[in-house]
Amino acid sequence: MTDIPLDREFWNDVLKRIARRTHRYSDAEDLLQTAFLRLERHRINHTVDNPAGFLVRTAINIMIDGDRHRKLLGNATSNELNECEDNSPLQDEVVAARARLARVKSGLEKLTPRTREVFLMHRLESVKYSDIASRLGISESAVEKHIAKAVLFLTEWTNGW
Questions:
Q1: Percent of the residues in the chain that have a pLDDT greater than 70, as a whole number
Q2: Residues 127, 130, 136, 139: what is their CA dihedral angle, to the nearest 10 degrees?
């Protein structure tokens, strides 16, 4: 069995080779440490003639395996997160929206029946002004006035909500 040199020069050289080959300068020490542990386990049953070469090659393989693992986990994790993601509004937003809706409903009740009907036909049913006018037998100008009246009233009515 070839012993591993204990001098700092050997370790600095191996560390530089790992960093240069993996392009992971910040991870080189971690890769070297993990590779050294694998070298020690391997040396129990096998002879290693070139420890530096073994360490560099093992560090590269560790990096490749880690990248593959992260890629597989990253895809699975992002898919799982998308499946579990809750896009529903927060409870306080729901309560506030219900309060605004109740305020708008009470405001709609204060409109005259004709103005309310014109406004709801346009906003809820997306009926065009000309179609509303022909259905109700009024002019388009009257439809515009009813909608403007409703929008102005509801804007003031819900102000601050």
A1: 91
A2: 140
